[in-house]
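Long-time lurker, first post. I've been practising inverse folding by hand and with some scripts of my own, and I keep getting stuck on stretches where the structure tokens seem ambiguous. Below is the full token string for one chain I'm working on. Before anyone asks, I'm not after the true native sequence, just a reasonable design that respects the backbone. If someone could post their per-position residues I'd love to compare against what I wrote down in my notebook.
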């Protein structure tokens, strides 16, 4: 009986330690991700999102894994809880926990416009591929490669690049070079 209590206490202690290690710090910064074609995403604490002035003051915040949606003009907003950076484990852990980590996505043209933006991106890819198959695109590609080859062989340009720290990696030893000089088998 004492062994079972000890094991349960040890498991509880380990679970507590894992939670403490993976709990994100309260002083993390607000993250803003802008996808020009689709949406803008804010990720941070409730206080950070409210301080940005993008959350209506009378909004009812969602609980658990639910989300809250609202519109203003043609702009659609989606607010939900998100997994804090560094937190491991199943979704049920952070959804049940009282983690203050929220994500707000703003769709300027509405969610339906996301499909239109995906179509625009695909069309842009097709136009780009067709351009590089054309005579003009081939000529542009050839000019680019010739300029790169010329820069690669230009000693003055390579000397300039060597002056910029981190731009040119240090020379590597050739493969098969021995760590021991003169060491060999007889």
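-- Answer (accepted) --
I ran through it position by position. Result:
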């Amino acid at each position: 009986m004492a062994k079972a209590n000890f094991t349960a206490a040890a498991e509880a202690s380990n679970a507590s330690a894992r939670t403490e290690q993976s709990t994100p710090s309260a002083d993390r910064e607000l993250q803003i991700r802008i996808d020009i074609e689709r949406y803008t995403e804010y990720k941070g604490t409730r206080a950070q999102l409210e301080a940005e002035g993008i959350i209506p003051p009378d909004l009812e915040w969602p609980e658990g894994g639910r989300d809250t949606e609202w519109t203003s003009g043609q702009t659609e907003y989606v607010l939900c809880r998100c997994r804090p950076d560094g937190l491991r484990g199943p979704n049920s852990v952070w959804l049940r926990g009282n983690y203050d980590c929220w994500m707000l996505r703003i769709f300027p043209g509405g969610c339906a416009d996301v499909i239109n933006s995906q179509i625009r991106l695909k069309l842009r890819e097709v136009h780009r591929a067709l351009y590089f198959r054309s005579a003009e695109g081939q000529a542009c590609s050839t000019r680019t490669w010739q300029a790169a080859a010329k820069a690669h062989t230009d000693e003055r340009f390579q000397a300039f690049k060597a002056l910029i720290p981190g731009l040119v990696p240090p020379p590597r030893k050739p493969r098969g070079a021995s760590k021991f000089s003169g060491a060999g088998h007889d």
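A couple of notes from the structure itself: The chain has six helices and five strands. Residues 1-26 have pLDDT under 50 and may be disordered. Happy to go over any region you disagree with.
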